[in-house]
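Thread: Dopamine beta-hydroxylase, structure

OP (GT): Posting the sequence first so everyone is looking at the same thing. Length is 599 residues per the record. Can we get the structure tokens written out before standup tomorrow? I want them in the notebook alongside the other entries.
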Amino acid sequence: NPGSSRRCRWASIPGPNMREAASMYGTAVAIFLVILVAGTLELSWNVSYVQEDVHFQLLVRGLKAGVLFGMSDRGELENADLVVLWTDGGRSYFADAWSDQKGRIHLDNQQDYQLLQAQGTPDGLVLLFKRPFATCDPKDYLIEDGTVHLVYGILEEPFQSLEAINISSLHTGLQRVQLLKPEVPTPAVPADTRTMEIRAPDVLIPSEETTYWCYITELPQGFPRHHIVMYEPIITEGNEALVHHMEVFQCTATFESFPHFSGPCDSKMKPQRLSYCRHVLAAWALGAKAFYYPEEAGLAFGGPGSSRYLRLEVHYHNPLKIPGRRDSSGIRLYYTATLRRFDAGIMELGLVYTPVMAIPPKETAFVLTGYCTDKCTQLALPSSGVHIFASQLHTHLTGRKVVTVLARDGRETEIVNRDNHYSPHFQEIRMLKKVVSVHQGDVLITSCTYNTEDRKLATVGGFGILEEMCVNYVHYYPQTQLELCKSAVDPGFLQKYFHLVNRFNSEDFCTCPQATVPQQFASVPWNSFSRDVLRALYAFAPISMHCNRSSAVRFQGEWDLQPLPEIVSTLEEPTPHCPTRGAQSPAGPTVVNIGRGRA
């Protein structure tokens, strides 16, 4: 039980402060543990939603002259919110600090990190300190529900002052975590649970940047109906950086059998029939861990009316084009014959994978939005609605923020999932703090913010790692026929945009209709006019809706040239709740006596 081992680590640090914290914060979420630097730094933390603060415990092995730890927007050491332990060769100090855009460190006028304990132990130095979620200090990081980029640095030698510390000379790094995990207990796995591994068959990973590998396998003959209650990734050792994301699909029961295949998904040798294997059973992406279904729901597979054939799709990201690497990664399913009350499902929200949705180059925060319209939910959802309990956000390399909002009767009512510091390198399936109910006629709006400052050409939507996606895989129950509810701008209106850009520019540029959409975007001269008009086009032009069944066929109806949903009232970002200042907050660094016993 990983939870119990984490508690042991925490409980092994003696002292009244720890006991006081445990009793005071009895409502706190269980302790989490992450290794920041193998063999050097180990971080545990404990969250109190009642007190709205986080207790951090940092174990420093082989302490030299100090350590800095903190948070920043994207994991950079510049413009970071830091806590620093350092020595001047005589005394040791602990202080709340911040770094400027040149990486210089300054003492924070408002000391919001409070040191509770510093203690030498046989394992190393243990620092116990706390900080509120929000401090309303402009130099401090706002701790939110989504991804947090933790940064650290090891001080190898004494410094006469905090300001003398030079970040560029330190051994530094970052680790991404979700600090504010929801208070959702891990459901017990039923006693009759069995496991099944769906793995790539010793694939030779192509020495290409992006490969989608497809593999067909099948369930045993006569495999009865079961519920999947949990699944987890199996990554071949050494390939952790190459396996970008994986999905297990079930094939349609329309066909009696499917040909066996193992090869690139875009291969000309791939049987056409594999396009009918689109019903999602499990979805994993880089950074995610084991996924549990709520006790009242499970994902059904097997039994009558269900195909025995499964398709594993593995996305390999091999930017260095490493040759000769073999892989047997996949997903381990945990399933039970004791069926739960509801069948669960996975639905894709956001943008269709199409080049008509594009981001101009040199943009710091360009937003694209995909819709699941009221027309689609009215037609495809049951009258009692569905309940979303988990969500996995997904973009490629330029994604910086993702949010899905629920709107009812033209008014945004609640956030389904939001990550203001989203990283494509940390795509967990996250349990929601609160189950979100979606009813017929509701609208789900998914917006992704992109940064293309380092790109010279437009970034178009598509499957390649250098193309972009904007997806929210929502996990919900009871399952419906609706598997994909996404949109894209109407292609005809995009052609009007290219025509307009052509008229305003010299004939050196050709965005002519006979070119492909990616070619047209590559020809656009990016200036304030072409950027603003594209932004305006996406904000008003009609959309093409994909309101799809798991068979990849749209629900009956007219889905092209659909108006954008009318939203008359939007949700505001919540205002941070500032804590009342305690008299105990020191004006400057705390002198720390590091020895055996507490300081």
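GT: Both are above now. Quick notes for whoever picks this up: Confidence is low (pLDDT under 50) at residues 1-28. The first helix runs from residue 2 to 11.
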